[in-house]
Design goal:
This protein has two domains: 216 residues, 3-Layer(aba) Sandwich (Rossmann fold); 70 residues, Alpha-Beta Plaits, CATH 3.30.70. Helices cover 32% and strands 32% of the residues. The strands form three sheets. Strands 6-7-8-3-9-10 form a six-stranded mixed β-sheet, sandwiched between helices. Strands 2-1-4-5 form a four-stranded antiparallel β-sheet. It starts with a strand and ends with a helix.
Length: 291
């Protein structure tokens, strides 16, 4: 059974496109990435899948149930972590989580204390007194408290420091080992690489591709900055080097291809320094689709 299936799912706001003809098939138990720059349509897709937005056309099913017609039943199986969280300000985290738990028969109240300790969240503080990061911790606990079969995560690490991000990823690994399907939406490519086996790439409201992560890595562009001890004569570049620019003994270029080939070439050079880094996601998309 598929955990999520959408067929030509579209949402327009008047004449303005939110998403158009989004078709996805996500297996039960899969960790699936959803990549796109801010404004690409990730949140609109998620809210339409959840039944929080009425689609202009197309359909979405979760575990074989229609997300619109059977929305209440469907959402009992889902843990949803939005990119921004807004709660009742005068409640404490404990009150909020206990209130949430009463809506779901599978909620385990003992998990509140356990997860709050794990994420270093003060349960007695009022929501209004929490930082953005602590509100996000509360939202993470809320999303997993009722033992959902599907976790839908929209930019889940924003506001978390690196330590808490690592704990969050460990928690997701544990949930997935139990069989939980995870739909992980982010504009941070490294997070998708870490968590997911496959990912859909969305741009301007349309799905551009659904890729195996390993295949995406092989096609991903790297930005290189080299400082040479001395400028070599008749330097031959390997296939995949493009947009090379010299400034005295410094060379910058973009590279698309197997990283092993680039490293073998680098080993033959007399370099004083070398930096390889990921470009921003939009640059990756532009390079990837122009090719």
């Amino acid at each position: 059974m598929l955990a999520i299936e959408t067929n030509n799912l579209s949402k327009f706001y008047g004449k303005h496109r939110g998403i158009e003809n989004v078709s996805l098939s996500i297996d039960k138990g899969e960790v699936f990435g959803f990549i796109g720059p801010n404004g690409a349509g990730k949140s609109t897709t998620i809210r339409t899948i959840l039944g929080l937005l009425i689609p202009s056309s197309g359909s979405a099913q979760i575990f074989g149930q229609d997300a619109q017609k059977e929305g209440a039943k469907v959402r009992e199986k889902i843990g949803y972590l939005p990119s921004e969280v807004n709660y009742y300000d005068e409640m404490s985290s404990r009150e909020l989580l206990e209130y949430h738990a009463r809506f779901y028969p599978k909620s385990d109240l003992s998990k509140i204390e356990e997860l709050a300790t794990y994420f270093e969240l003060d349960l007695e503080k009022k929501i209004t007194d929490l930082s953005f990061g602590n509100k996000k911790k509360c939202a993470i606990i809320q999303a997993v408290l009722h033992q959902p079969e599907l976790l839908i995560l929209d930019e889940p690490t924003s506001g978390l420091d690196p330590l808490m991000q690592n704990r969050f990823f460990d928690l997701l690994d544990q949930e997935n080992e139990k069989g939980t399907t995870i739909f992980f939406s982010s504009h941070i490519l490294s997070e998708i690489q870490r968590m997911c086996d496959r990912a859909a790439i969305i741009r301007n409201g349309k799905i551009e591709a659904v890729e195996d992560i390993q295949a995406l890595l092989e096609k991903q562009m790297k930005k290189a900055r080299f400082v040479f001890q001395s400028i070599p004569e008749n330097l031959q570049f390997p296939a995949g080097v493009q947009h090379e620019k010299w400034h005295q003994n410094k060379l910058t270029f973009d590279y698309v291809g197997p990283i092993a080939d680039l490293i073998k070439w680098m080993a033959k050079l007399e370099l004083a320094d070398a930096v390889l880094e990921e470009p921003d996601l939009e640059s990756i998309f532009m390079n990837y689709y122009e090719r």
